[in-house]
Structure formats: C-alpha cells, structure tokens
C-alpha cells in the first residue's frame, strides 16, 4: 500500500434557515416556560437551525440541498472543481430517500460523475467512518482527491401538531438536542503547504450485549400509522457512557501516534449538548489544548458536527500544531477519533 500523506485541503458547511432559540422552541410547541430554563441549564444548547419552518411546517431544505451547498463551499475553499474529485463518500442518519442514495443526488448536482460513491448510514460517528473510508481508498493508490460529506435533517421527525407534553421524555429530549446542517471536507494526496496531514483515524463498535442508547424508527407504507415511538434517546445511559468512551478514544489515539497530552493544540470534542460537552472536555484533561465546540449555538448536527468544528479549527492551525477530534455514537455504542498535524 502506498503510504502517502493525506492532506485535509478545506472544509465547508451550511446551516438551513435562521437560528431557533430556546424561547422560540418552547413557544412554538406550547411547552411550559420552565422548559426554556431547563434546556439552558441542563442541556446547554442555546439555539439550533432547522430545515423545517416552524410556523408553516414547510420543509425549506432537503438533505441533498444542504449537502450540495456544503460540498460546493468545500470545493471552492480548496480551489478545486467537480472534475478534480476521484472519490465521494457521504454519511448521514437521515437520508432524503432510501433510494437513490443522497450522496448520488449531491454528486449529480455538483457535477461529479464517473467516480466511486459511497453512503454510510450512521449517527454521530458516521463522519469519521466516512473519513476513514476515504483515507483508506486514497492510500490504496490511483486516486488523488476525495470529497467527504456529512449531513443531518430532523425535518422528517418534526410533527408540529403534536402535544409535546404528552411525549415520552426520551422523545422530548431529541427535540431540544438536535439541529440540522451539513459539512464537507476535501482530502488530497498532493502536498499543499499549510494544510494539516491526517495522522490517524480510528473507529470501533463496542456495543456487544448492550442495549442501544438511541433508536430511530423507519416506517414504511405497511406500518406508517403505527403507534411505535419514532425516536428514543436514553439520555441517562448516554450521560454515563459517553465521557469515559471519549477518554478511551483519546488515549488510544495518543498511544498509536506516540503523542503526549501536552502535544495536542486543538481539541474537537463530541458535540452532544453544551453541558455534556463541558463534562467530556473536563474529563479529557487537555488544559493546553484549545477547545473547538459549536454545539451550544447550532445543536447536535450529527454527521455534520465534526466538519463544523474542523472548519473553525483549520484557519487557526499553524505549522507544528496538532489537533484531535473525537466522536461517540450511542445508537449501538461506537467510539471514533482522528488526529491532524500541520507539518
């Protein structure tokens, strides 16, 4: 296998519509005023962006719309065009359709054709799974540039007629944690001065024998009127499990790269909620690292979250800087991470 360096050339992101703060969210769903304070205090997410207009119920952005915009911005930032892309990978937990895959719709819109395309269905670790797949294929030789897209849309799970107070708590929490958005990164094998090298990517399933921490149902024509709960978030299990899993990922990355805690200049922690992120960062204990977090302002954007963080980190990284990104997925318990270094 060709052991060329893989460079992160650029990142691009997009958010649909204006921010929706906690006051607007509680008002629109007729939740008691105490909910606004509870979200601020215990969840720590101040606002999020939604693909659906909360007043009209109109879906303003599809997943493909957001993926197209993010991909176009990443390509523009990298100074590349659709014809430069040799490989495209997308990850999402909320595709527009089961078929065609959203990655292929996005590819068509931005003019990518005649190359391998892949779509991974996963949650918060999906972006890093896509990153690992793209990196592996670039290292195998014969391809020079890859486009990796991560996107999420909650629109299909929003029922503006529902009485939120009657929903199970495990479903209510989803409505305040998550936001919509898309991000994309461009990877390349050609050295570009000032761009970070992808030093490592790791991701592992660790859910053997464990109940899922998050469940998202899929309803077809035969069962679309089912009374089954559409989404479920076991927040207590997540609160207990995610912080130590994040520490495990950090330790594994540092050991693999022979880096010390003091070598990390930028930390991109899991983006579950503002308060949970604060707890995770405290447990990771990297006092010399600059934290790059966006969750308090845009919510948990799932597969897009690492690319929002990376877009903010890239312009701040200088020669010799090192960055570590971590993601943890509670659906069936996956932990993942990646490491960058500007040479």
From TrEMBL:
<dbReference type="Pfam" id="PF08545">
    <property type="entry name" value="ACP_syn_III"/>
</dbReference>
<dbReference type="Pfam" id="PF08541">
    <property type="entry name" value="ACP_syn_III_C"/>
</dbReference>
<dbReference type="InterPro" id="IPR016039">
    <property type="entry name" value="Thiolase-like"/>
</dbReference>
<dbReference type="InterPro" id="IPR013751">
    <property type="entry name" value="ACP_syn_III_N"/>
</dbReference>
<keyword id="KW-0012">Acyltransferase</keyword>
<keyword id="KW-0963">Cytoplasm</keyword>
<dbReference type="GO" id="GO:0004315">
    <property type="term" value="F:3-oxoacyl-[acyl-carrier-protein] synthase activity"/>
</dbReference>
<dbReference type="GO" id="GO:0006633">
    <property type="term" value="P:fatty acid biosynthetic process"/>
</dbReference>
<feature type="domain" description="Beta-ketoacyl-[acyl-carrier-protein] synthase III N-terminal">
    <location>
        <begin position="120"/>
        <end position="193"/>
    </location>
</feature>
<dbReference type="InterPro" id="IPR013747">
    <property type="entry name" value="ACP_syn_III_C"/>
</dbReference>
<protein>
    <submittedName>
        <fullName>3-oxoacyl-ACP synthase</fullName>
    </submittedName>
</protein>
<keyword id="KW-0808">Transferase</keyword>
<dbReference type="GO" id="GO:0044550">
    <property type="term" value="P:secondary metabolite biosynthetic process"/>
</dbReference>
<feature type="domain" description="Beta-ketoacyl-[acyl-carrier-protein] synthase III C-terminal">
    <location>
        <begin position="254"/>
        <end position="327"/>
    </location>
</feature>
